Amino acid sequence: MKVLLINPPRENEIIGNNPTIIEEERGFNPPLGLLYIASCLEKHSFYDVKVIDSQVEQLSYSELKAAVAAYNPDIVGLTAMTMTLIDVYKTVDLVKEADSSTRVVLGGPHVNLFPEETMANPKVDYLVLGEGEYTFKKLLDAIDGFERLSQISGVVFRNEKKIFLTDTPPYIEDLNVIPFPARHLVPYQKYSSLLAERDPVTT
Question: Where does the signal sequence lie (predicted)?
Answer without folding.
Answer: none
